[in-house]
Structures are given as C-alpha cells and as structure tokens.
C-alpha cells in the first residue's frame, strides 16, 4: 500500500507522464498477489470484534473540521483529549473527524467508545480489506466503506479503504494514509458557498463517497491509455512474451477494478433502498447520481475487458503469423535449392564413359561431353528457379506477409 | 463527435455508399478509445450539479416549435429573451424548445431556472456522456436521455446524446449538434394531420425517443453490411492482419452498440412501470411498441456478435490452413529431392576400382562401369519420384488445399 | 422469404431427401444475413401505426371458416364485402378469418376497423418481423404473434410470421404466404369430433399456436440430421474450409432458431400469467402443455449448440493433426536421407592419395582404396537407415497417425 | 432405449466391469443423437391429448401391490378386469399399480378413465420424452415425471421415463421397460417394517422419486471412472483422434446428464412450494432431502464438466507438444548434417590444381594435397557436431520433451 | 480424507513450508476424484433416515464442555452414560457435546434420540458429504453443516464436514476427525472473559461456523502462494506437461473450493432471513459479519480463477513460442547451408573441359581452371552467408526470441 496520489487538481496527467516506461517497467505479476496478501493477513479464529493493528499501519493523525452554515474551523489535533473537549463543547456544529493512520490501539478503542462505533465495524476499519458496503446501526446511523483506487507507476491498481461512520452531528472517516483524494470536499467546505455546509452529516458522507467514486475515472483513463499503448506496440512491434505478460497484467488490473467497483454499485443501490429516516429523499437524489456513475464505471471496465480480449486475439494471431513467415522463408529457400542441388549432384556422378574395352559408352552421361553441356545446364537451373519464383509469387508468398 | 448523419429520408443508403473503402480505410483501433476519452473528461471531485461546458461544444442555437391541434409556429430565435417572451405569452400552446449546442454557460443556467430543470440533470445534459435513462422529478415531470447512433465512414459508431425535459406544456430537447435525426418528427408536427398535435408533451417525448430508437436500425444494417463484406474477403482473399483488425474493430463496434441499446431498453421498461399520473396508459401503449423495438435491436446485436465470432473462427482456421499449405509444399519438394540427392551423391563417390596392385576391384561401385548404368539410374530416380507422387496424391496433398 | 413447406403430413421426410447435396449446396453465408435484411427494411421515423406494405408482399386471399358444435362452413371469398356480410349475418357462429397475403392497403385498413385491431398491432402484422409476443387489448382480447419455421434446401432456417387477433366470436389470422402448416387444425375443425368445435375462439388461438410450435420439431430434427452428416464427414473426410463453413453455418442456424424459440416460451409464460377473464383456466392447461414443448425445443437447441461446439473442437484438432502428419513425413524422410547424403558426400571428396612427391598418403581417405570399401559403406548406410526406422517406430511415428 | 440395468443390489459394479473396453468400444457419436431422435418422433399438429403408441413400445404387464400397515399383497395380473375388480373390492387398502409397457392403446385408455388421468398427462406418459415435471390436477392429485438414467456399455447415458399418478388411495406408475431400479422400494414394502406401509400414497410417490434420484449417483460414478481412465490414457499414451472423440463423447454425456437433472431439481423445488393439502409438511421434509441430493448431483455434473474441459486443454497441449517434438528431431538432424554436407561438398569440387601451363596453382584447394587434410577435415566435422550438440543440449532440446 | 491440519496457532505457515516440493510432488490428478468417490459411496435406494457408518470412520470420542457465565468444565467421557448423567444433572448450564468419529452405530442412534436429532439430519451427519446448509426443525432448533477445508501437502483441498445441532441449552457438534480447527473457540470458552460464555448456544454455533469460515483464508493463501510459484516457473523455466498438469490441478482445486464456499454463503444468507425466534437479531449482526467473509472468500476464488486462466494463456503462448524458436533455428541453418551446398555441388560436376577431339571446351566450367577460382568461390560463399545473416538480423530472428 503505497502513498496514494497527491490531491492534485489534474489527476489524469500523472498516469500520462508514466506512459513511457510501460514495457520497460518491472513486471509485477499476472496473478493477483494483492488477493493472496489479503488472504494471508486474515486473522483466523479470533473473537469477533477483536481489534488488531495491521503491520505497517501508520501512527494516527487526527484532523477535525467543524462547520455550520456560517462557521468553519479546521485543525489538526495532536492530543485526542483536546479534540474531544472541542467536540463536546460544540454540539451545535457539525464535525468531520478525519482519522489518518491506525497504529494506536488505545486511541482506536477510545474512538470506538466515544463515537459509538460497533466493534465489528471497527474491526472492518482496521482490517483494511473490507469490500465497499453499507451497514445501518443504532436505527439510523451508517457505516460506509469505500475503496479508493490509484493506478501506480508499476501499472498496478492500488486501493485503500475509506471507512465512514455517521452520527447525528458528525462523520468520522478512517483511512490508513496521510494523503488522500478528499481535498476537493475539504475545499468545498472551506469555500462556504456550497450546500455541503447547510446540509446534514449524511450529505457529507455522500460527498466523500462521491469523490472516491469520481476518482475511479482517472484510474480507468490511465488503464485505457495503457491499453492504447499496448495496441500500438502490437501493431508496430513483434509479439514477445513481455508484451503478452503486460496484456495479462492489464487484464488482471481490469478484473481487480471490476471487483472494486461492483460492490460499490451494490452499496449505493442498498443506500437507495434505505428508509427515509436513515437517508432522506433529498439526499437520495444525489446518491442516485452516484449510482449512475458507478454503472458507467462498470460499463467502462467491461469495455476494457473486451479490448484486452481483442488484443489477446491479435497477439496470438500475430504469433501464428510469425511462424508462418518463418516457414515460408524456409520453404522458399529449400524448394528452390534442394532440386538444384539434385541436378548438380546428378552431374557429379562418376559413371564412366569409357568401357573397360576402351570403347566409348555413349549412354553414360553423354551430356558431360557436349560442348554446350554446362551452359545448357546453367540455363536449366535458371529456368527451374524462375518457375518456382513465379509459383511462389502467384501464391502471394513473396509479397504479402 | 463528428457531425451526425444528415436527416436524409433514406438513411440506409449512406453506409452502403461507404462500403468500398472498407479495408483501405485507416484503422481506428480495436480498443474502445471513446470509452477512455469519456473517462478522461470526467470531472473529478466537483460539487454535484456544477455546470461545465465541455471543450469543443458548439454555440447554442434555439429553435421553438409551438403547436396545438389547430396551430403551428416554428422559428429559430437568436435572442433568448424573445423566445421566453413568446413562450410566456402563449401558455395555451404546447412548445418544443430545441437547444442545439451548449457553449454558453449563462444561457444554460437561465434555461435551467426558467424551465425548472434539476441541476444534476443539467450536469448530465452538458456532460454529454450519460447512458440512456429516465428520471422522474417534481412528481410528474420526466428527464429522459437517449443516445443517437451513427455509423461513420471510419467504420466507427458515433453516438450523440439527446436529453429531454418535459413539463406540463413543453418539452425541452438538448443536443450538442446542429444536424440531427429528428426531422421526421418535425415534419409530422408541420403536417398537422397526426395525433402528435393533439396529444400532451409526453407524447412528443415518446415520438422523439422512438425516432432515435428507429435510427439504430440503419446503424445495425450498416454494420451487417460490413460483416458481409468481411465474410466475402475472408472467403476470397488471404488472411492478413488488416482483415483481423477489421474483424476486431467491428466486434468493438457491436459491443459498443450493445452498451448503448441495453440501457435504452432498461429506460423504456422503467417508463412502462411509471404510475398513470406520470405517463398515461394511452401513451404507454406506444412506449410498449418502443420496447419491442429495443429488444429487437438487442437481438440483432447478439446475432452480429455471433457472426463476428464465427468469422474469427474462420479466419484463425484459415491462418492455420495456410501454414499447412506452406508445410505441404516444403514436405513434397523435400521428400522428393532429398532422396534423389542421396542417390546421385552415392554415385559421386570416389571409391577406386583399381586396387593398388593394378587389379580391378569388382566390389567397388561396379555400377559405374556398366554400359547401362546411367540410364538404369535415371530410371530408378524416375521410379522414386513416381512412387512419391502416388503416395502424396493418395494422401490428397496434391489436390485439395 | 420463400414459399414455406407445403402442409404435407410427413414434414420430416422433406429435409431427409435434401441430405445428399449437403456439402455441395451453395454456401449461404455464416453471418446472419436475414437479420441485416430485417434491419434494412425497418421503417425509420414513421408515425407509429403507419401501415406500409412490404415489398414483395402477396395479394391477399381471404378464407373464412365458420363453425359451431354442430355446424361447419369453409369458403374462400374473393369479395371482402361478401365475407363481411356473411360474418355479420351469423353472430351465433364462431369464425376463423384466415388472411394470406397483405398487398392491399385499403383491405388491411378495412380489416383493422371492422375487427377492431389496434393500429400498432396492424403495423406489427404488416412489418412481418415481430418476435413472438402476446398483447392484451380491449380488456380481454389477445394479439398473438408466432413465428413458423422451415428448414430449406439451402440449409437455412426460413421463418414466417403468423399473427392472430382474437375477438368474442372470431379469430383473425394473418400470414404473408399461401401455404402454411395449419392444415392439421383445419382438418380437426372439418372432422367435427374434436373439442375445438365446442370451445371458444381462444382455444382456436391455442390450437394454431400449438401447431406452429409443433413444427419446430421437424426443423430441429433436420438440423440434427445435418449435424450427424457433418460429424460423419469430419470422421471420414479431410478437414477443409467448406466443411468448416458448413459447421459455422449450422451454428448460425441454431442460434437463429434459439432466437425464435426463446420469445415463444416467454409469450406462453405470459399467457399463463394472464387473468381468468382473458384466458380461462381450462385453456391454460393446454397452454401449459405448449410451455413444456417450448422448453423442450430450447433444450434441443442447447444440445445442438453443444454438438456444434464439439464438432468445431474436433475439426480444429484434425486440422492440427494433419499438420502433424505432414511434419512427420518431412521429418522422417529428411532425417533418414540427410545423414546419408552427408556420408556419400564425404566419399565424394577429392583428397589426394598421392603426395606431390608421388608417395602414397595413407591418411587421405584410405577407405576409398580398400577392396571392401564400397560394400562396407553400403552396409553402414543400411545400418543408419535401420537405426532410424527403429527409432521412429518406437516413437510411433510410422504406425499411428 | 435398451433394457435398463437389472435391479442388482450393487449397481456401481456394473460400470466398473465395463471399464476395460473403453477406448476400443465403438464410438457412438459426439453429437446428441438421442435429442434428434426425440425431435423426429415428435407428433406434429395432433389434437392435444391424442394417444399414440410409440414404435417399439412393449406389450404392457400389470403388477399390483396392495398394502396397508398390516397387510401386503403383490401380484402380476394378466387380465385387467381381474385387477380392476380386486382394486374395487379393496377401497381400504393402498394400491400401487405398476404398468410396464404401453403397447395396448385400449388398455391405456381404460386406465386413463378408471384412474382419472388427464389426457394431456397420458399423452406425456406415452410420448416417453417428457422432462421431469410435476403437475397438480383435480385440486390435490399429482402427476410426476422422473427420468431414470443408466450408463450403458456403449458409454452412453440411457434414460427412461417413470411417470407417476397419485390418487387418494393409489399410485399408478408407468414405464416402458420390464426391468427397473425400483426394487428397493418394493422390498421395503414387502418387509413391512418401514414407514412406507403406514403413510399415504404421496409418500410412496416420494419413495419412487427418491430412488430414481439415488440412481443418478452410480451413473455419475461411472462417468467419473471413465474420466479417470481418459486422464490416465492422456498421461500415458499419445494423443489421437479416438481419444479426443472419447473426451467429446463424455462431454456430451455430462451435458445430457445435466439436462436430465436440472428439471428434476426444479420439479422438487416446485413440490416444496405446493400447499399443505397437496403435499403435507411431514412429507416435504423428505422431499427437501431429495432436493439436497438433486443439487449435489448438479454439483457433480459441474465438477465433471470442468474435468473434461481440463482434459481437453491437456489433450490439445499434448498435440502441440508432439508437433514440437517432431520439429525438434527434424531441426537437430538437419542442423547437424546440412552444414556437414556443405563442407564435404566443398571438398568434392573439381577446381584444378594444375594450371593449363602445367604449373601448380597453390590457391586452388591446397587442402586436398596436404597429407593431414583428410584427418583435419574429419576433426573439423567432429567439432561442428560437438558444438551443435552442446548448443542443443543447453537449449534443453536433447533431454526434456 | 486424511487427518486434517493440527490445530496449530499459525496455520498459514504449514503450507508455506510445503512449497518446495511443488513441482516434484506426485501428481494427484486434474479431474475431481473426490467427487467421483462421493458419487460412488452414495447409498442407493435406502429407506430415508437409514443410518450407515461409512467405511474408514473413526471410533467415536466424546468431549463435553459445560459452561455458564461463571462456570466452566471440560472433560472427555469414555462412557456415554456418564456424560448423559452429567448433562441431565446440569440443566442450568450450557453444554457443547463434541463428537469426534462415528464408528459406533448404537451410540449414534442413542445420541439421535437423546438430543432429538431428526433421522434425515443424522443421515447427513454420517454421510459426511453434505454441502453446507441450514435446516430449522422443531420450530426453533438449527441443523447446520459446514465444511472445513485444508490444503494438503499433495496440493489438494481436503474437506471435512462439521455438523452442528442446536438445542435450548446445548450444541452437539459432529466431525469424523480427532483433530480440528476449533481450538480457538475452545480457548475462548476456557478463558472466560468473552461474550461466548454469556450468550445462548446459538452464539456458540455462530462461533464454530465463523472459525470454519476463517480457516478458508489460509487455504486460499496457500493456493495463492502456489499460483505465484507456478507463475515463477512459467517465467523462468520451459513449458512442459508437468507444469501444465500442475496448473490444471490448481484450477481443479479452485473450482472445488468455490463449490465449497458458495453454499456456505447461501447458508448464512438463509440464516439471516430466519425469524427472530430462531436466530435473535443480536446474533444476526455476527452472522452478517460471516456473510461478508464468505463473499470475500468467493471474490478471492474468482480472482484466483482469473489468475489460473492467465497462466494457461501464458503457458500456451510459450509453447507456441518454443515451436517458433525451433523453427527459426531450422530455417536459419537450412537457409544458409542449402544454397551453399548447391554452389559447391555445382563445381563438383564432371563436365569435361576436353572435347573428344582433344581441343579445350572453354564453355564447360571454365571457372575450375582459373587460378583465382577457388578463392573467388570462397568469397562468394562468404558473401551469401553475410547477406543472409543481415537479412535474418533485420527480421530480428537472431536476437529476440
């Protein structure tokens, strides 16, 4: 899990800049090693709700954004007590507590208690491998998991988990990364002119979910760009195993992407079915928009899958074509020279013109003794070659590949 | 997004005229570059409902058709104020406001307010990449998206978005193109003898949706024509990579077409499920007819997909056949001449007939000293050749390909 | 759309008689040209319910069968007025109006009005390309479309549309063909001993639907027969492109058949869900029987599809096998004779036995001067050949193919 | 339809004994000829409920088992009248009328009337090709169809139809075979200690359905055994067309089996949904057990399908491997001897050492006159061979296959 | 069914240690022999609920854990009577009766009666081949089947059945193995600090189900590890049949795993739909967590399936590549030396320079008599070789593979 893409305003340019090393980049494998990693890290036989900090987790940083229609405050707290005091002192504000990094078990347990998070949900947060999902708890609170994607310079899809817990006047977000793709939401909060400041925390949860979903598009665009590069390589270069590995790796990425997007769609469909008291109708309009985006992302992934499959077909046909070409060279050269060799071998035989009695045997290779023998033979050979060349030309073996 | 097909009355002839340059036309790629383009243009992290004009959008032109059972007026307005005034002054008429081109943000915002369009819908209009869908808003108004297809001279499916917003006495249509395929509806309005003048705006929305769907058939017919040309090429020509690329490109087009038609069917199915107060039963009869057409278009696409897959099989088998043919030529020529070369090489050996003591060694290659040696050898060679030819003939290698 | 099979009592024999020209019959293409034809004929942008007569439609012939439990009359009318008068005069009878051929627009419009047919349904009738479907209109009347199949001598599936409109005391059937497969129903009506004379028109509609469905079986049997012929050809003959084309053509036919049968099943399932007042329970028992038949036809089509796929696998493996065989011949002959050629070439070298000083150089090719040189060499060559033959025999290259 | 497996107590041993002739058994085809047969025998255009005896149907034999908790009688009746009289005389007993063979139309019609069987059901009985299904009639009576499978010595799945009609105090079973797999139920009835004697006829119907389903397992086990034999053949033998045909035939069998089992599962699921008055809850518990078995049989079939697909992959890869091997032999031998032939050919040239003026031309092939020429050449040849052998060894062409 | 993995605390390390012998381990087959074994052992035609002990079943051992919030006792009983007495004497405690091994029919029947187990369920327990399922009986008791997986050193998935029967104050678990993966639950019970001691037996059933599901992850991780090893082998080694067999075997394992997990998911979904009185809402929260895990396991299996399919593609392409390479070597060597052989053969011809009359024939092979003939020829040969090498180099045949 590397550091995710910086929240740059033009996210599509980053992958574009990484296009060059495409075929030269080290191969990271065509099997889904992230899946195996996930299986390996799964805790076995634990009490449900047991909190465990994954190895390599970052020390937590706490950011609190407090806002109302007319107020905005944003601060990183180094002491949780201070943060909690501030939160307690402002029940009238809405709060977004942004937790980045999990490596403090005591803090995590404290957060769980203070914000009323279910232990099973907290386990999902820390496990970091939960598919996108939504759970309703305490009648009208939501636990939402999204997966943020990023297309790395190693041509792999890197995904990080964003977990959201909503409450009556707060949203707690969890991610095990200091950089994220949520800055556009922060900026909208800061700017103060947007709906987001007037609406309930569930709208903030929507906005965060939406921005994660929006980031699927640059990932897909990057994959699409690489597919086009692969297509160019196939058209211009020779088929080789590295190219095939790249194609298969890209296929893995697309399959992985689909596995990320599909539950996202399911999640939003489930949100749309939630009762009015959990997600109000006016917010559902926005989630419906999300839903359209998720379906469109699935469409894109399907489309890429078809492209990869076509590239595979083209690659394999090319491989077969090259064999054909090799065989044609062999056939043309052999077909021309093997008969010629026979003919010249014929006249290399040592049949004797003189019989033992000294008389001349006119049956034994008289051609060798004709004055025009050699030129005639050369002419014959030229005729043979010409005939074969015409035959091969007519078959199209000399011109088209 | 090129200029769409002119609203000619015989749309199927245009693709027919483009058949000739089929294989010579520049390849436009077998991966779905339009999908990548779409992903790349997706706005990331914006406030929902933010209006952005896509690059390359056309300056808007406004056409207003106002009609009732006994009245018809049609005019292009260069000033929106005039148009609005006319619309305001005639609440008793039904109006079709036809907006072509989006490149005026202020105007778009004005339209949004005046005609009560939801910002998320307006965003979908301007984004120009929305799948076919229907949304109900304000209890009984519809927001409809259709995608108009066109099969270009580059053998690509070009699709444009048609967005419709209905109101109690109007329909607003949006498209980012000056030419479209809606003239048949305009003519029906002009003619005055049709139901369309007597019915509510929702019927006009139906008529526009229907005409877009009808235009899928010429697109499909053009694809079908090209598939037949490809089939002929495979049967008559030699397999080559360009032909394979064409096949794969056509496959991409069909997949793309399916991706366009499928949501269209879903959309109409959803319309058929809408309550009576949104879409009256008498109009649903017509949408049911649309639904049959959409299913038929899906059937066609499936059928073409099967055809393409069969062409692929045929192509690959041909490629293998050609290798077979090359190998047979090599095998026949080698099998005939390599043994002959051995025989003549045999009699080119220099085993000495004379022993060192001058006596004659009758064991060493006596054939060379026979008067009938050479003719006998030629006969032997002819026999070998004949035997092999018979063998190869029986195997069918000389006749069938 | 050729003339359909005559209503012969043994429909399975016709295809059987056509088996011989199987591989010699002209290839009619492996892509679905009928589908493209359909797309091409689709009317674009017309007012819904516009009636258009398709090119090549036949002049209509009108047959009226009037019956009750104790009465039967059957007549072809050349004047519609007479027919209408007769129908009007006998409201107590049940009538089957059998319209064959559509090429009279005025008559079609008259029928539409007199028998209360919805314009959209009439459009479906004349369009002749509607999938099987059922529509309920006027509360309890049915519009039914079936597709009659026929397997032609060109090894293609030909399908014709049968449209039925039911009323309180009549059924109107439409088909654009003078011959059809409905004679068995007519005979049952004529015979007078069957339920059909006692039951309501909806039962007649069932009987007509059922007989169409029953005719799917001879079509399937004919396809099955051809698949067996193809299988025999593959087992006994050599793979060639014509055979592959036949396989792919048969695959197209099966896919086409499935596309015809699947909506038939959907149609009947929908009939079974209709309320009691539209289709009475006692008639549904019979439609349930139809449903079983439709599912069985789908099963058959699936089974044939698997068979074709297995034949493809076998064909492709054979193609590969033949290449293998060619390569083995080449390898065996080359492997045997190329070494031999080397050996005899060796003894064709001109190394001099005599040194310049006239002494004998016993190192230079002394074999050539041995009295047993030549026989020994021949023995060596025979040994080499024997060794290789044993090697190839052990590898099984000489025996199994 | 051959005579089914005898009701031996160890049904799995029969297929095991037939394993040996596997590859030698005559090929019965890789397309589904039984399906075509079925299509061919379908009656076309008949009045529904018309009873027709299939060709080859057996003369009927009638067996009646009458039982109650404390009574048991079993007899074959040669006169139906006697049977009917006995049945009439014992309304207090439960009866199982076991009809084997249909070839007596009058008897069949009599049975239909006496036991109140619906004509459409009777048609299904005699047609002998009905998929597994359940119909409820007369409010609470069941018509059940099961298909009994058997794996024949010809490696084909043979299936026979068992039709059951339940009544208040009887079950009538129909099958067109004298031997069947129902003896275990008969024995349970005879033994008298089981529930079956105490329960209603519907429980008997369950018991018969269950025993048919149980017999799917030996069929599957036999197929599984053959798949293992095929796997061994592929691993140990050479790929040949007969083996491929076997694989494809086995695939057909599995597909056929799935087509038999799938409706069985549907049937039982439908039984489980029937109301209490038709199938009482206490019997449903047993049908639920059947349902688990049907699902498990489907699982097995899926598993075998995967196995066959893997065997195909292995076979095709082997075929390719063998080509590779052939090519390697050719390449090694050609690569070694063709250069050698060139070298010895070189020293077979006749360039003259003596100039016309009698002087010696030291440029023309001086090697031929060196005393060490020949041994040096032999050394060179040996070096070339050694070099190539090392090259090929390093490439692994000499060792691994 | 071998002895399952010991209940070691670090289950993922065991497979890791077995990685080395991967390719050397004996092949256990690519077809699913366990499925055939299952089909073969199926009892045919038995009375439902007949209890049969499978061959190889272990002698039963009985463990009883009795607990409440404040009490814990654990003991192995060698006499069932003692156990039963203890159980009877403590109705206030909750009991987990852990039965390992079934080989005592009388005991099994006793257990069935004492704990009110349904005979059909007991049959499922002893059959040991039941898919995961849940049945509700006696209104609110559950019969649960889970399948415990283990990845063996033979690279096979071994699965054992765990059957659970719940009652008001007990859970009976059945397994035919002395070692299991349930120790973590036992430890949680022993430790006394967990919820499990306070909750109802249904929670214990959940905990046991959950721990089985958790053990799917190490199995999957082991499969994933092997896939990575296979990937490395393909990249570094040569394609050979053993590698292909491994790939196909791994595919079989994954398919088998999916067949195990899928019903597990269905089972838990069914539990979540059970009414409150059977599974209380507070326990369902935990089962929902299970459900997420089951879906994730399915995802993993899908991902591995894709990986295996990519490895197959890579393998087959490699196989084709190697053929290509072989052909290139043959073509290069043949193309270079066959023409050379012709040239030197040409100058090995015996055309006579001297005419019969003693004059010199300057037409017959004058090159042989030129002083520079031989060096010029050598130069020509070198030129030919150089030309060809350049040609092949340009084609890339000399460098890239």
UniProtKB/TrEMBL annotation, chains A, B, C, D, E:
UniProt biased composition (Polar residues): 34-45
Region entry Disordered, spans: 1-53
GO cellular component terms, A-Z: plasma membrane
Signal sequence extent: none
Location within or outside the cell: Cell membrane; Membrane
Keyword Ligase: no
Membrane topology: Multi-pass membrane protein
Comp. bias (Low complexity): 1-18
Keywords, in A-Z order: Cell membrane, Ion transport, Magnesium, Membrane, Transmembrane, Transmembrane helix, Transport
MF terms in GO: cobalt ion binding; cobalt ion transmembrane transporter activity; magnesium ion binding; magnesium ion transmembrane transporter activity
NCBIfam families linked to this entry: corA
Family under the similarity heading: Belongs to the CorA metal ion transporter (MIT) (TC 1.A.35) family.
Biological role: Mediates influx of magnesium ions.
PANTHER family, sorted: CORA FAMILY METAL ION TRANSPORTER (EUROFUNG)
Name of this protein: Magnesium transport protein CorA
Native organism: Hymenobacter aquaticus
Classification lineage: Bacteria, Pseudomonadati, Bacteroidota, Cytophagia, Cytophagales
Gene (UniProt): corA
